[in-house]
Amino acid sequence: MGARNPRLWGRFTRPRTGWEARPSVGTVRGLYGSAWRQLRARVLEEQPECHWSFPGCTGKSTQADHVLAIAHGGQPYDRSNVVGTCRSCHRKRTQSQGGRRRRQP
Fold first, then answer.
1. Contact 44, 84 (CB under 8 A)
2. Is residue 9 part of a domain?
3. Residue 81, Cβ neighbours under 10 Å: how many?
4. How far is the C-alpha of 19 from the C-alpha of 21, rounded, in Å?
5. Share of the chain above pLDDT 90, in %
6. Quick check: helix, strand or coil at residue 19?
7. Which range marks the domain in which residue 84 is found?
8. Is 31 left (phi over 0), alpha (psi -120 to 50) or beta?
9. In 3D, which of 67, 68, 37 has the Cα closest to residue 51?
10. Cα angle value 27/33/39 (rounded, 5°)
11. Whose CA is closest to 33, among 84, 86, 77?
């Protein structure tokens, strides 16, 4: 018998590669539902000024940022773990922590 053709393997029997091999991807995406949208709106209302104020800061909060990343044990819906930030500061902070940006389509 020859080697099995990978295209013929069943969904659950083929080796997982790339994003499939990282279980956190699916679980993190599942966190951003209606509960997150409500918390985000509350944070932006309560904190209209950017929390971080790094160089290049626009000053206005447009995004919500977890102070302690979920991957490092931070609670996703805990108000004390989420701050308002501008896009520029959020990006700089994420990059300084070794986070990855999503690929643009």
1. yes
2. no
3. 17
4. 5
5. 52
6. helix
7. 49-105
8. alpha
9. 67
10. 115
11. 77
H helices of the chain, in order, are 23-31, 34-46, 87-96
* 23-27-31 Cα angle (round to 5): 165
Polymer length of the chain? 105
**Both structure tokens of 12:** 């659950």
Beta bridge partners of 84: 64
| Residue 104 forms part of a structural domain | yes
Whether 32 maps to a domain, the answer reads no
Amino acid (1-letter code) at residue 10: G
pLDDT digits (tens, 9 = 90+) for 14-68: 555 554 555 444 445 577 888 999 999 999 999 999 999 999 999 999 999 999 9
Cα–Cα–Cα angle for 71, 105, 68, rounded to 5 degrees: 15
Domain count, the chain: 1
Let me know if residue 3 belongs to a domain: no
